[in-house]
């Protein structure tokens, strides 16, 4: 049994893994797990990841959850070019620093905007009140400013002159709000240039292919979501919205 990656490309971490594996010529079997259909909750998938989350990896009898752990596993197993996870102590520390920071910042705020702007209106039939949307957008803008000033600065990439896992993980997360209709690159020339460099480094066609689903998410309708997930999603999102 070869390497299997269990992915749904609507998920940011899944896209990072897919792009990383494909751009580095890593052979794997793409096992699609459609989150909206609840396929991550099946008994079969729980044998791969008892946490019922994607991405997940199976390599022979070995299984692994958590996207950062999987990215590092692939980088080490397949000895990918050094720039992805540099051997230089301080460059690697820069990558680790971003990967440690991003979870509740870029990922947290970008995901929240996406969920509030796309999924909540879909489930409730009501658009998010303008003041709520403004608040969620401002939360994201704060961390975008931190990302530019602290992590990107005036460098081509986060760790210096070459692309790394940090850049790939960052960019797939920032595409989630773009899919929701918030073009955060439009008035941020430094971010837009960085995006162009990252896309060129991994391959523009591959990047576009991986993002086709999320950039067409406006076509999602409630009947495409598993009935048992509808109420669960609705409850969770309304709870988040009320905390804003």
Descriptive notes:
This protein is α+β, with helices and mostly antiparallel strands and 244 residues long. Strand 3 (56-59) and strand 4 (62-65) form a beta hairpin. The chain is globular, with a radius of gyration of 18 Å. It has helices at residues 12-23, 43-46, 67-77, 89-101, 103-124, 130-152, 165-179, 189-202, 204-215, 227-242; strands spanning 3-7, 29-32, 56-59, 62-65. Helix 1 crosses helix 7. The model has no long low-confidence stretch (mean pLDDT 93). The protein is built from 10 helices and 4 strands. It has a 4-stranded mixed sheet, covered by helices on one side.
Radius of gyration: 18 Å
Mean pLDDT: 93
Unreliable stretches:
none
Order of helices and strands: EHEHEEHHHHHHHH
Largest sheet: 4 strands, mixed
Strand arrangement within the widest β-sheet reads 2-1-3-4
Which structural class best describes the helix and strand composition?
Answer: alpha+beta
- Percent helix, as a range, is 55-70%
Number of strands: 4
For the termini, the CA-CA separation is: 47 Å
Shape: globular
Estimate the strand proportion. Answer: 5-15%
* Number of helices, counting only DSSP H or I runs of 4 residues or more: 10
GO molecular function: glutathione transferase activity
Family: Belongs to the GST superfamily. Theta family.
Domain GST N-terminal: 1-82
InterPro entries: Glutathione-S-Trfase_C-like, Glutathione-S-Trfase_C_sf, Glutathione_S-Trfase, Glutathione_S-Trfase_N, GST_C, GST_C_Theta, GST_N_Theta, GST_Theta
């Amino acid at each position: 049994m070869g390497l299997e990656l269990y992915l749904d490309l609507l998920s940011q971490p899944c896209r990072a893994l897919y792009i990383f594996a494909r751009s580095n010529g890593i052979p794997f079997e793409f096992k699609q797990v459609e989150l909206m259909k609840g396929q991550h909750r099946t008994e079969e998938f729980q044998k791969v990841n008892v946490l019922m989350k994607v991405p997940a990896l199976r390599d022979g009898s070995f299984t692994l959850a958590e996207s950062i752990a999987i990215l590092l596993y692939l980088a080490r197993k397949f000895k990918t070019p050094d720039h992805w996870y540099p051997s230089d102590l301080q460059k690697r520390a820069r990558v680790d620093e971003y990967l440690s920071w991003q979870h509740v910042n870029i990922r947290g705020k970008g995901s929240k905007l996406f969920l509030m702007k796309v999924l909540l209106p879909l489930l409730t039939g009501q658009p998010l009140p303008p003041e709520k949307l403004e608040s969620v957008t401002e939360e994201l803008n704060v961390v975008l400013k931190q990302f530019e000033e602290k992590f990107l600065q005036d460098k081509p990439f986060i760790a210096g002159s070459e692309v790394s896992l940090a850049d790939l993980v960052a960019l797939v997360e920032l595409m989630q709000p773009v899919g929701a209709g918030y073009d955060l690159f439009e008035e941020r020339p430094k971010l837009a240039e960085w995006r162009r460099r990252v896309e060129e480094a991994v391959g523009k066609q591959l990047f576009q292919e991986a993002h086709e689903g999320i950039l067409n998410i406006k076509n999602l309708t409630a009947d495409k979501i598993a009935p048992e997930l509808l109420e669960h999603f609705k409850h969770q999102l309304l709870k988040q919205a009320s905390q804003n």
